[in-house]
Amino acid sequence: MLRNLLRPASAPIRRWVMTAFPKPPSGGIDYDHPPGDPGLFGPTSVTWRIHNDFCGMLAGGLCALYLQTLHPRALAGVWDHSNFREDLVGRLRRTTTFVGGTTYAPTAEAHGMIARVRTIHAQVRGVDEAGLPYAADDPDLLTWVHVSEMASFLAGFRAYGPIAVPDAAADTYFNETRRVAEALGARDVPGSVAALDDYLADVIPTLAYTERTRVVLEVLADLDLPVPLAGLSRDVFLHAGAFLLPAWASDLLRRTGPDQIKARMAAATLRGMAPLFRAALTDGVATRSCHRVGVDRALLTTWPPL
Predict the structure, then answer these.
(1) What CA–CA distance (Å, rounded) separates 150 from 163?
(2) Which H/E stretch holds residue 135?
(3) What is the number of other CB atoms lying within 10 angstroms of the CB of residue 245?
C-alpha cells in the first residue's frame, strides 16, 4: 500500500538513479546465474542488508571520499593516477560497482573483480607530497581505504536506513566485510566496532589536512551530481554525506559551524526522502541476487539471527 502511494513521487527518483548510476553495458556481471550461488556473503549476512540501502550507500560513499582526502599516501594514488578533477563521479560509480559486485555477485564473478583490482593496484606507485613512497597494494593503505568505506556505509545505514542497527549487527558487518579487504591484500583489518576504535586510535595521528586535501575538497564541493527532483539542491547529498563524518574527521577537515548546520539540515532532508528511494528501487542487484538464491527480498528488511 505504501509503495503504491509513493509511486508518483518515486518515479523521477528511479529515473535519476538509472541515469546517475547506470547499469553496465552488456557483458557485465550476471547477478541471476548460477542459481543457488550465494556469492561471498549470501542472504543470511548483515552485509546484504546494509548494502541494500541506496541512501545510506550514496551518503556513505561521499563520506568515505571526505575521509580518504586525509591520508597523504592514499590521496597521492588518486592524485597521480586518476582524472579526479574531471570525473570524481566516475570514481564514486566505480566504487559502487565494486562494492555491489563483491557483495551480491556470484562467487566466481566476485573473485574475478577482486583479481582485476589487484592487477590495477600493482601498477599504482609513486611518492606523496612529503616525498614518501606509496603503493596502492600496500596492505596498510588497503586497510585504510576499506575501513573508511565500511565505517561510512555503516554510518550511512544508521542515519538513513529503514531499521536500527544492533551492536551485534555492526560487529558482524565488520567481521564479514573484512574478507574482501583481506582478499585484496589488506592486513590487520578490524573485525568489530571495538577493533575499529583501536585501529582509528593508531591511524588518526598519521592523518593530515594538506594542500592536496584542500584541492580535492574543492573538486568535491563542485561535484557534478545531478538531482532527482526539481528544486532539490545537489548539496543535500554532499552535506548528508558530510553529516556522517566523525567529530575528529570534521575537525581535521576544518568544517565550520555553518558547514555543520548545513549537514544537519541535509541529513534531515535525506532521511525524509529515504522511503521514496526505497519505493523506487525494488529491482536492483540485491533483488536479483535474492531471486538467484531463492529467497524473498523482504528477508533483507530484518536482521538475521546474530
Answers:
(1) 18
(2) strand 133-135
(3) 22
> What are 155-180's pLDDT values in tens digits?
999 999 999 999 999 999 999 999 99
pLDDT of residue 11: 58
Q: Above 50 in pLDDT, residue 231?
A: no
Q: Answer whether 221's CB lies under 8 Å from 238's CB.
A: yes
Most distant CA pair in the chain, distance: 60
- CA 45 from centroid of its chain's CA atoms: 17
Of 283 and 5, the one with more pLDDT: 283
Chain centroid offset of residue 199 CA = 19
Identify which of 199, 203, 182 has the alpha carbon closest to the alpha carbon of residue 190: 199
Q: How far is CA 90 from CA 60, 117, 125, 189, 197, in A?
A: 16, 16, 21, 27, 31
> Cα-flanking dihedrals φ and ψ of residue 200, to 5°?
-65, -35
β-pair partners for 126:
134
For residue 127, give the 3-state DSSP assignment. Answer: strand
Q: Where are the alpha helices (DSSP H) in 204-302?
A: 211-221, 235-242, 247-252, 257-280, 285-293
Pairing outcome for strands 133-135 and 125-127: antiparallel
Give the angle subtended at the CA of 116 by the CAs of 110 and 121, to the nearest 5°.
125
Q: Which residue has the cell 559486485?
A: 101
Distance CA 242, CA 263 (A): 6
Residue with the larger pLDDT of the pair 38 and 234: 38
d(CA 200, CA 148): 10
DSSP secondary structure letters along 56-118 = HHHHHHHHHHHHHTT-HHHHHHHHHH--HHHHHHHHHHHHHHHHHHHHHS-HHHHHHHHHHHH
Return the percentage of the chain with pLDDT > 90, whole number: 71
